[in-house]
Amino acid sequence: MTTSATRMEAACSLLAESKRRYLLYLLAEDGEKNIEDLITQITAWEHEQPIETIEKEARQRVYVTLVHNHLPRLADYDIVEYDLRSGDIVLAEGFDDIKPLLKQFKQTEDVPEIRKRPVL
Question: Domain named DUF7344: which ranges (predicted)?
Answer without folding.
Answer: 13-88
